[in-house]
Fold Membrane protein.
Amino acid sequence: MSNLMRALRAVLWSFIGLGGRRADAEGRTAQVGILPLIGVALVVVLLLVAGLITLARFVAGT
């Protein structure tokens, strides 16, 4: 599995709170590295916020 996919998987698991045991979560972090995790997390958060804003505008009709 590529490094980017590992980072995305670790970030998505942490967002929903199902990271498993602490040792498993630390292992995923050690495999990928902290900087790629931070970068992927920022992109995912920006996409989530943009999606929520778009949804709110659609529902409000503006």
